[in-house]
Amino acid sequence: MKVVNIHSRTIHQPIEKVGALLSTLASKQDRIWPSEKWPAMKFKAGLVLHAKGGHGPIRYTITKYIPNKSIEFTFSPPKGFYGTHSFEFTEKTATATEVKHTIDMYTKGTGTLTWLLAVRWLHDALLEDALDKIENQFSPDQKTTKMNWYVRMLRWVAKRF
User: According to the 3-state scheme, what is the secondary structure of the chain?
Assistant: First the structure.
C-alpha cells in the first residue's frame, strides 16, 4: 500500500531561529522530538549521514541531512515499511517558516495492517506533539493537541507489553 502522510505547521519566526532546532534532534537537549510523551529518537553516532537509530520499535538510517534545513531517514525494521520519513524547514517569508514532516513509503504484509490499525494513529499524534513543541518555543500561548480516544487506548495497550 502506498502511504504519504504529511504534517506541517507555519511557525511565525525566521528560518534561522526555527531551522536551528534541527541540530538538537535526538540529543539530550532535543527541542523537536516530544520525548516527554513518546519514546525518544536516538542515534549512537548523533545526527550524521548513515547513522542508524530510531524511536521505540521504529528503526531507520539517516540518508540525507542538510543542517538547519532538512533531514531524511530511510526505514529499516519493522518489516513491511519501505521508504522514508523526513523533516523539512522552509522559509515562507522573512518572519515565517514552514516545518513539515513527510512519510513517503510503501507497506507490505503485516506492515500494512500495523500501519492501518496502530502506527498511523500513533504517528499522527506524535507528530502533532512535535509540532506543538516547536511552536511553543516561540509563542506565549502554549498549544497542546489532544489525543483522541483511539490513540489513548493504543498507548494504554502498548504500556502492558
Answer: CEEEEEEEEEECCCHHHHHHHHHHCCCCCCCCCCCCCCCCEEECCCCCCCCEEEECCEEEEEEEEECCCEEEEEECCCCCEEEEEEEEEEEEECCEEEEEEEEEEEECCHHHHHHHHHHHHHHHHHHHHHHHHHHHCCCCCCCCCCCCHHHHHHHHHHHCC
The rounded distance, in Å, linking the Cα atoms of 141 and 135 is: 9
pLDDT tens sequence across 54-86: 999 899 999 999 999 999 999 996 689 999 999
Q: Cell numbers of 69, please?
A: 534545513
Report the pLDDT value the prediction gives residue 146, as an integer from 0 to 100: 97
Rg of the chain's alpha carbons, rounded to an integer?
Answer: 15
Q: Cell 520519513: give the residue.
A: 85
Q: C-alpha cell of 128?
A: 502533532
What domain range includes position 56? 2-159
CATH code, 54: 3.30.530.20
Structural domain total, the chain: 1
Cβ atoms of 145 and 37 closer than 8 Å: no
